[in-house]
Amino acid sequence: MFECIAAVVNGKSQAFQLTRLTLDEPRPDEVVVEIVGVGVCHTDIVVRDQYYPTPLPAVLGHEGAGVVVKVGSAVTKVAPGDHVVLAYGSCGKCENCQKGDAGYCLEFFGYNFGGGRSDGSTPYHAEDDKRISGCFFCQSSFGTHALATERNVVKVDKDVPLEILGPLGCGISTGAGTVMNALRPIAGTSIAVFGAGSVGLAAIMAAKVVGCTTIIAVDLNYDRLKLAKELGATHAIDGRSGDVVGEIQKLTGGLGAHYSLECTSIPAVFRQAVDCLRLTGVCALVGAAALGTEVSLDMNNILFGRTVRGVIEGESVPDIFIPQLIALWKQGRFPFDKLITFYDLKEINQACADSVSGKVLKPVLRPAQVD
Predict the structure, then answer these.
(1) Fewest Cβ atoms nearer than 10 Å: which of 129, 138, 153, 203?
(2) Eight-state DSSP code of residue 133
(3) Contacts of 76 (CB under 8 A, 6+ apart)
(4) Residue 343, Cβ neighbours under 10 Å: how many?
């Protein structure tokens, strides 16, 4: 057993509380990781507020990075001392996983939101014997230690600052991967990104990397739009300016954008992201809305060759894509660290509040200072 301190949310929309827990020894396919840095993602807040029904109390957190401290008897991918980024969970056995589409694993919800292992057990044990949900995204990394699986740990080079790498496990990979893996725009094309948060800005950086020549950021926050232009956007539009769709059409020769991304989870914005497309354009939906959220679209807009599609986890294979993003970072071509603001783990509630308010883009918690 491992003694650890974790941030536990006990009830819907309640504050996280640092709690001393005991973590299981790793099973044959499991890995124990000492967390160095963990990003706060929109999905963590969505689950805290129970828009997705992960059982509470729970340890959340799914953008962890750290050092392997112990591995199960069957693990060969990593060894104690290795630096790793923790990605999302998948079964590895269903048809989609076998095709390399693990983000669309047929067991995705259970592995990532179920609150325990596939057999229903949870690796955490509290002093009062209350059940604490764990295995969130096969990691639950809001704490000093996390229990992951061999399948969702990604070994990374030790010459990269480990504390910045956690967001590559979800948010940053989602934005960049939606462009690089799902949309795959050719050089010289146009793209509009609705929502200049961490996911949207990662998409903008990726669009620059692949050679898009018209990159349009849409947001309500002046500072985010300014940063978007620093990171590669060629144009910035204030979402309150009126006819956003019309402005995008003007910037694209009256035709509309080749591609768009919707990162806000707001139905009215999603509609704009579709309406701004040219004929045969593609809109990618990446914003995670509450279950049951609906949107209305003009059927004739879709009829004329436009495509609307959802994208999960940037359609990335983490073992391949995360090292690719790190290589781009080393070259100065993907400066995702500019999005990060650090907090101690004990400041998790402030970090969440600052994320929701838009004060910061990507909070990263550092558990090292927890007593």
Answers:
(1) 129
(2) B
(3) 150
(4) 18
Contacts of residue 60, defined as CB under 8 A and 6 or more positions apart, other chains included, come to: 7, 9, 44, 47, 48, 54, 136, 140, 142
Angle at CA of residue 48, ends 43 and 49, nearest 5°: 100
* Residue 158: exposure state from Cβ atoms within 10 A (0-12, 13-18, ≥19): exposed
Nearest to 122 by CA among 232, 225, 244, 30: 30
How far is the CA of 246 from the CAs of 74, 228, 260, in angstroms?
Answer: 57, 20, 14
Local confidence pLDDT in tens for the 371 residues of the chain: 789 999 999 999 999 999 999 999 999 999 999 999 999 999 999 999 999 889 999 999 999 999 999 999 999 999 999 999 999 999 999 999 999 999 999 999 999 999 999 999 999 999 888 899 999 999 999 999 999 999 999 999 999 999 999 999 999 999 999 999 999 999 999 999 999 999 999 999 999 999 999 999 999 999 999 999 999 999 999 999 889 999 999 999 999 999 999 999 999 999 999 999 999 999 999 988 878 889 999 999 999 999 999 999 999 999 999 999 999 999 999 999 999 999 999 999 999 999 999 999 999 999 976 66
Angle among Cα 297, 219, 240 to the nearest 5 degrees reads: 75
Which token pair is 10? Answer: 């006990």
